[in-house]
């Protein structure tokens, strides 16, 4: 069967392996492909670290499944010991416990896949070993969201100044919808870090009455 492995530097590798192959042998193949020593590899499947003696078939790995390879570090066990406060954010947007936050996100392969699509720079920092860089990017994203929110609030105020203009009303409707999306995103970051990078698109049915 064929499996796909995504590495920390965004390499996408396709390996042809036997379903009964051990994780250790898969790591040996990856060592040849990536030059990362077997001992320093950490393989994740469905958000959980897989161990060397385990066989792919026993783990439920099937044809065309995705695994992620990150550099070994604190490991998934270290992340699971963190408290809820360890996964929260400071007022400047940085993580209270960047190591716990990093390991928590690393363990969710679906979340990492979304991050690589939506914010590859942040995904790289999460998979890397520089926690200062991770904190810098989190602060930058926080500042960018604050600036974006301020701009939208200013635009909304200007639009409300002429509420009977048809084009203004369309923009008001779009701005309200976007504001709901942004608030949902902020709430997810603050209260549900496990939902990080998953934005629920909110839509409001609205009928605009125009007076002439």
From TrEMBL:
Report the record's Gene Ontology biological process terms: proteolysis
Q: List residues of the Ubiquitin-like domain.
A: 1-76
Q: What SMART domains is this protein classified in?
A: UBQ (SM00213)
Q: Which UniProt keywords apply?
A: Aspartyl protease, Hydrolase, Protease
Q: Mind listing the GO molecular function terms for this protein?
A: aspartic-type endopeptidase activity
Q: Pfam families per the record?
A: ubiquitin (PF00240)
Query: InterPro entries from the xrefs?
Result: DDI1_N, Ubiquitin-like_dom, Ubiquitin-like_domsf, Ubiquitin_dom
Record PANTHER family: ASPARTYL PROTEASE DDI-RELATED, AT13091P
Name the family the entry cites.
Belongs to the DDI1 family.
- Name of the featured protein: Ubiquitin-like domain-containing protein
